[in-house]
Amino acid sequence: MRRLGALGALLAVALPAAAGAQSLGSRFADRFQPAASAIVALADHRVDAGLGFERTAGALFGVQGEVIPLEGTLLSIRALGGSLDTHNHAADPRDIGEVSATARWRLVPWLDARAGFTTRTFSSSLARQRWTSAAIGADLRMTMLEGRVEGTTGAQLLPLVRVSGHESPDVAFGASMALRYVARRYLVGLGYQLERYDFPTVAGERRLEEHSMLTLRAGYRFGRSTRASVD
Amino acid sequence: MKLRDALLGLLVAVLALTTPPRALHAQANTAETLTEASRLYDDLQVERAVVLLRRVLSPSSPFEVSREQRVQAYMYLGASLAILGQRDSAVTYFRAALERDPFADLDPARFTARERAAFADARQRTLAVGSRPLPMRRFDPRSEQIPIVFVSTQPAAVRVEVRSLVDTTGTVLFERESEGVREVAWNGTIAGTPVPEGRYALIVRARNAAGETDSSSLAFTVAHDHEALEDTLPEFRDGELLPERWPASAANRDLGRGLALAGIALVIPSLGSKDLGQGGHRYARLAALGAVGGGVFAFVDRRRHPVNAGAIAINNARRVQRAAHNAEVSRRNAARLAAMRVVIVPEVAGP
Fold this sequence. Notes:
By secondary structure, chain A is mainly beta.
């Protein structure tokens, strides 16, 4: 019930973005070309807090909304939620909810810069942990089939990470790759991302965490123009 | 010595300046002879006039004789011989004059009935046609005309036409029975459009009832006077447009990009902590598999559809843009041609 509640809360935040984009009218759609997507993700969360290796994984579901305010830029908001089940008995199952906002700028046709903000919540029967992070990064772009297929790969630094109940990690970065196929207004995307967090050693124990996720996305873009966007 | 050389040079210069050109002197001499013959004719010293006129027409005459002077000499000679009762000879010389200038005629106020009768006889025996030289003229072919004056010495079927000297372009201005001097007008058009620039001839042809024919031709040049026209841009050549088919390497390149993405997906987990590597990274392998699939899809699609639709669209847009530019140039040129004037430049005939 709590899981459904968390998912409901996340959708309540995310859905207005997508629903709102559809209701703003054709003028807004032509100007900003909003896109709404449904996301299915497979998440893998690994932790070693000095008490042994813990791993949880599971499927997440969510939505993503995005607009193109200016040529070569993209603003997106993504909301995901789901449950991670343990692969061994050293960890408890937990729910995860995540909302992230990302802004991208196309620096050159083959390179994008991006900055983002993410808040992520882990909830288990024992505790609730909230992560807040800000990231900056860059993505290399490579297009295929005249842009109908677009691949990106990038790296990001997370200079600002706050974790409730813990000190901020002293090493935090991520890497990602994505592939997107666009057919007229429809788009399908596949992505993989990994985030690594190395926390400072406390009482001789060093906490390591890793969060990776495989995402599958299907979306629809509104508006008359079909300007290429960054994914 | 120096003074002598200077005086000699001065003398040569004065002589060079005061000596008229030979041809001019020769024509002047012929003109003087004709003037003297005319005076003798008027003074009824017809035999002496005949001597001078024969001298002008003699092939052995050392002086240059223009066409007009020759016609004048023939006319006076014919008139003189008519007065002397040599009618056949008079008619012969009158015919010679008419053959060279069909417009030649005797002034009734100056020549006697006998002379005019001989001239009329000559005209009845000679079919000759001709046209007056066209004046140099600049006119609007839409609203103005130029006079064309032609003559036929006998009643004959006369055809007057303007015809290009380089192709068959032309127009008929007059074609029916005619005798004597007649004037028609030409508005400077051929088939309803202003006559193109180039060299043309005003041709007069005649055929009388006896089947005899004669013709004359007068060359002239047509020029157009209008604001300078702009050139339209030529059609695109091969190298100026984007290739409309993808090169064979494009499919391989797309496949390579997909494989590169797959490789990156497989490398990403190595950035994680080794302490957390247990159990492998299945999702990274799935992502790599997806990237390979994307590359293969792009490869196959590119091989099956090698046409570059984007380049075709750009090329078409450029063609449309160029066509619009050329249409605009054509429109401006048409406006300039609409205000165009035709210029007739007669060509100078030889002596």
